[in-house]
Amino acid sequence: MTHNLCSLSVVVPTFNESLNIGKTLRYIRCIDPLVELIVVDGGSTDGTIEISKKYADKVIMNKNGTIGKARNLGAKYAKGEVILFVDADTLPHIEFFEKLRLICSRDHKVVGAGCLIMPRGLNFFENLFFYFLNFIVFLSVKVKRPSIAGSCVAYRRKEFWKIGGFDIERAASEDQDLSVRISKIGEVVFFPRIVAYTSSRRLRQLGFFGLLLDWSKTTINFLLGIKTKHYKLTHETQ
User: Fold this and answer.
1) What is the pLDDT of residues 41-74, one digit of tens each?
2) In degrees, to the nearest 5, what angle opens at C-alpha 116 toward C-alphas 141 and 235?
3) What pTM did the predictor assign?
4) At 112, phi and psi to the nearest 5?
């Protein structure tokens, strides 16, 4: 990887992620050794902190607040020109890292980027559903109202702070809110042929229709300008 490309920091929020965090951090270290790796932990008691310290450049404690607050805290310590936010159970393809460094070095109009996010272990019907959701995200970027999930999304650090980062009062849709706000000062892009694979645990926890209902409620709240204060799927912070 060429050193004259833009520098990259990765922020990973965690809370009792001992089953996932080691694999995720090792994976990121392996595919892009140059990244600055920051973990923001919400008070884990299962060994997550100890595992994180083996691989991360910084492990920061954040015992209270929303996931937006945790991501902002990690971004505060980040030194990279671009900050990639990744959930503890999510593995972005190596090509995503390469594209980020390349496009952010060549095109300074680009302030944000996302890719396909697909849960692992899905059946045929579930695969179709999640590809459809990703298509909706793709369309949202095309119509200049991006709605990119925070589980794998990157922003230029300068522009991220110019708009104030994530809204820490939102327990959900903080990722949609930020991608829309930052798109007003620059271009947000989406890579439809690059996949970040994530856990299907949210789907297994609530079931297909439960997950759809939960997401629908938070999205409707966002569209109506209502800040969701409590979200049952938030697990990364406490």
Assistant:
1) 999 999 999 999 999 999 999 988 899 999 999 9
2) 105
3) 0.92
4) -155, 155
